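step: validate -> pass
step: tokenize input -> pass
step: predict -> running
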Amino acid sequence: MRQKFVSNKAAPLQYPLRKLNSEAGKVVPGWGTAPLMGIMLVALLLFILTILQLYNGTVIVEGIDV
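step: predict -> pass
step: emit ->
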């Protein structure tokens, strides 16, 4: 079955981005970037909890009205 539309244009952004995706699908032995992702998730959780406590009034900071 032939495609009805084939674009002749190529996105110029695809060539620099292709380098980043060169190892897609390969499995790296070990933990890889999982610890970094865990640290970032914990940092995001602490940030959200701090914002929630400030909004709720559980933590009162002088000079900031909510």
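step: describe -> The chain has a mean pLDDT of 79.
step: cleanup -> pass
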